[in-house]
Amino acid sequence: MPLPSWPPWGAPESSVLMGHSLGADLVLDHAAALPEGPRALILIDGAAPTPRPLLTEDELTVMHESLSSEEALHAQRSLAGTLRQQLLSADDVMGLLREVEAHRRSSAERFDQVDRPVTMIMSETMAGTSGDRARELNTAWREAVDVLAAGRPSITVRRVPAWHDLVVTHPEQVLAHILAAGAHHEASAA
Predict the structure, then answer these.
(1) Does residue 98 share a domain with residue 40?
(2) What would the mean pLDDT of 88-103 be, rounded to a whole number?
(3) Which H helix or E strand runs over 181?
(4) CA nearest neighbour of 22 among 11, 14, 30, 33
(5) Domain end marker among 87, 105, 123
(6) Is the pLDDT of residue 4 over 60?
(7) Among residues 105, 124, 140, which one ends one of the domains?
(8) 2 belongs to a structural domain
(9) 56, 60, 165 from 66: Cα distances, Å
(10) Helices 70-78 + 57-68 axis angle, to 10
C-alpha cells in the first residue's frame, strides 16, 4: 500500500510524528519507509519489539471464546448504530491481535531505519497490576523496550506509572513528557 504524501503545511524534516499504541507502530512504519523522515518521533506505549508473542495460544483461545459468547454478542448488538458500535467479529479481533504481535516482533528492523531522535513514553504496567501473569507481561514489555533503547542512543525512554490507558488516566504526565521531548528535539536540531 502506498504511503500518503506529507501534508502541505510542513516539510517532513520539520515534523515530529507522534502515536499511541498501534498508532506508535504506524508512526514508526511511516518514518522508516520515508527517505526524508520526520525530525523526531514520539511513541506512546507502542512499537516495542517483542521477541515472542506476549499472549499464549491458550490466552487467545479464552479471549476468542469470551468475544464469541452469547453475552458478548448481545452487548455488541446493543451498540449497533452508536459511536461505540463494534464491527469486528471475534475472528477479526484474533486475527488483528496475531498480526500486531507479528508486526511488533519485527519492529527493531524499522527502528534501525530511522536515524532521528525517538522518545518512547511507556506505561510501567501495560497489562495491569493483578496477578503473576500481568507482572510477567509487564516485565516482558519493559525488557523489550530496555533492550531496544540500550543499543540505540537516539532512543530516550520515559516511564509513566500507569496502565496502557496512560493518555486518559495520566494526561498531565504524558503531556509533560511530550513537551520535554519536543524541547529536547528542538535543542538537538539547533
Answers:
(1) no
(2) 89
(3) helix 171-189
(4) 30
(5) 105
(6) no
(7) 105
(8) no
(9) 15, 10, 22
(10) 60
Count of CA atoms in the C-beta half-sphere (13 A) of 72: 12
Indicate the DSSP class of residue 36.
S
Same domain assignment for residues 123 and 188: yes
State the helix-helix crossing angle for 22-33 and 90-105, rounded to 10 degrees: 50
Q: Within a 13 Å sphere around the CA of 180, how many CA atoms are in the beta-carbon half?
A: 13
* In the chain, % of residues over pLDDT 70: 89
- Based on its alpha-carbon atoms, the radius of gyration of the chain, rounded to whole angstroms, reads 18
Residue 144 in grid coordinates: 523489550
Alpha carbons 135 and 138: distance in angstroms, whole number? 5
CA–CA dist 172, 4 (Å, integer): 32
Domain range for residue 56?
Answer: 51-105
Ramachandran assignment for 80, one of left (phi > 0), alpha (psi -120 to 50 degrees), beta (any other): beta
Rounded average pLDDT over 31-40: 84
Is the pTM value of this prediction over 0.90?
A: no
Q: Are residues 76 and 162 in the same domain?
A: no
